[in-house]
Design a protein that fits this description.
7 strands; two-stranded antiparallel sheet; about 475 residues; mainly alpha; 17 helices
Length: about 475
């Protein structure tokens, strides 16, 4: 098995255009203008048409497209024509130069297609030379089907591709599909806003408004403060271990808490508590206690359902003569419902010094990593260009061998049923038959009641690579489950 990873750098260089600057023909500028028009400038027109396309699937099947919808399409096409004419005038074409503009646009498209083909052919020639150097002159020729596959895989996107997509958007069927998708998106957003207002203004509204206030304060309003204090927390780990926290760091924490207190008093005033923060927290405690009662009742109900389903599974296994294969109790996972108290407590923990210090050090490290990545990205074009201009001998075709010492010695498998209230992406903790606790993520495409297999390393296997539970296999509709309504 050969690997061509070391040959990809010149290809990616070719895809970018072959020099330090991106291509800037009239065709490229036209595509950029058209994308901006469709994604930004046409938004008011799309919003205007939403009521026209607010049509159920049944109505569409029975009645078909309406005259109002086709009239909206004609207005949409006229608006596109106006934007295209405006672009042509910006490019220096007069109103009567439409034919010249289209001819120049087509010429730029053909030139871009030819340049892309040249890049692909140059890459394939380099690949053939390296293969010949590696395997010798007697190496068998590369199969044409493999060459075509490589060409298709690494062919750069051309202006013609973008133009075809843009032309597709001028057809009625595409416009109708786009508008019906926007109708569904609009309804979804409205429903989410309704549910949000229901939470904020309902019985538990004060608690939800407090959580919203605290999240905005900690994540958005304090951004400039975090940025100002980050240099204070640029402390190496060894230095922290030897010298501990500094006076400057604790002073930053005191300023942090004073800012939070100031915003908290503003929130008290807005909610009608004046400057009596104690009264606010007394009311929050009452709401949290009431919410906890509801959560406990919900969890009790869920556990009762779990027991019923376990009895059903035992009975089914008994009828099918599989009791001996069950190896104990049926495995059912329960997602504990989240309480308001848990959320509020996690926010209050942000006012403790240890949490604040750890958060600031994380921000410092995050900023360092981002600067390192951005610095590497800025250097990459020159490095890639140098790779493209280097001697052919600098590029290698290498054999890839698997390090058998890093392959797990033995894998086990446990079947897991998705609990009620959980979905793809939810995190679960599962006990393996040997007693290990596995942290897993529910794979995409699964819903409550469906089952999937989880692979894990048995004791004695390789663990140096951080072997953990991995979900795999196909979903199965058989199996019982129960759980809460959050993960």
């Amino acid at each position: 098995n050969t690997c061509v990873a070391t040959m990809l750098a010149p290809m990616f260089f070719a895809i970018s255009g072959g020099d330090d600057e991106e291509p800037d023909s009239v065709a490229h500028r036209f595509c950029a203008h058209a994308m901006k028009t469709l994604n930004d400038d046409m938004d008011p027109l799309f919003e205007k048409f939403i009521p026209v396309f607010d049509q159920s699937r049944q109505e569409l099947v029975q009645q078909g497209e309406t005259h109002e919808q086709y009239a909206a399409y004609q207005e949409y096409v006229a608006a596109l024509d106006e934007h295209i004419s405006r672009f042509a005038m910006q490019e220096g074409y007069n109103p009567g130069d439409g034919g010249t503009f289209l001819a120049n646009l087509q010429q730029a498209i053909e030139e871009d297609k030819a340049r892309a083909e040249q890049q692909v052919e140059a890459f394939l020639e380099n690949m053939k030379r390296q293969r010949s150097q590696m395997l010798g002159p007697d190496a068998p020729p590369i199969d044409e089907s493999e060459l075509e596959m490589v060409k298709a895989l690494f062919r750069p996107q051309t202006v013609d591709d973008m133009m075809q997509m843009l032309l597709h958007m001028t057809e009625y069927t595409s416009f109708s599909g786009l508008m019906r998708a926007k109708v569904q998106q609009y309804k979804f957003i409205k429903e989410m806003e309704r549910k949000k207002q229901e939470l904020l203004m309902g019985e538990m509204g004060l608690a939800h408004r407090f959580i919203q206030f605290a999240m905005k304060l900690l994540n958005d309003d304090m951004h400039e403060f975090y940025k100002k204090c980050m240099p204070i927390f640029e402390q190496e780990f060894d230095n922290l271990q030897n010298q501990g926290h500094t006076h400057e760091q604790y002073s930053a924490f005191q300023e942090y808490t004073s800012i939070i207190e100031s915003h908290l008093l503003q929130f008290c005033n807005q909610e009608g508590f004046g400057e009596d923060a104690m009264a606010l927290f007394t009311e929050l405690q009452r709401l949290v206690a009431k919410d906890q009662e509801q959560v406990d009742a919900k969890l009790k109900e869920i556990l009762a359902e779990v027991e019923q389903k376990k009895n059903v599974m035992r009975q089914r296994a008994s009828e099918e003569g599989q009791m001996e294969q069950m190896r104990g109790e049926p495995l059912l996972l329960v997602c504990k419902p989240a309480a308001l108290g848990d959320l509020i407590n996690s926010l209050i923990q942000q006012t403790e010094y240890q949490t604040f210090s750890a958060t600031m050090r994380f921000r410092v490290e995050q900023d360092r990593v981002m600067r390192m990545l951005m610095s590497g990205a800025h250097r990459q074009p020159r490095e890639v260009k140098d790779a493209g201009q280097s001697k052919l001998s600098d590029l290698e075709v290498v054999d890839v061998e698997i390090d058998q010492s890093r392959v797990p010695a033995e894998l086990g498998t446990v079947s897991v049923t998705v609990p009620d209230g959980c979905q793809a992406g939810s995190q679960l903790s599962v006990a393996a038959p040997d007693g290990q606790e596995l942290s897993i993520t529910i794979p995409g495409g699964l819903s409550p009641g469906m089952s999937f297999d989880v692979n894990y390393c048995r004791p004695g296997g390789y663990v140096g690579g951080g072997c953990s539970g991995q979900a795999g296999g196909s979903a199965a509709g058989y199996g019982a489950a129960a759980g809460g309504y959050s993960s």
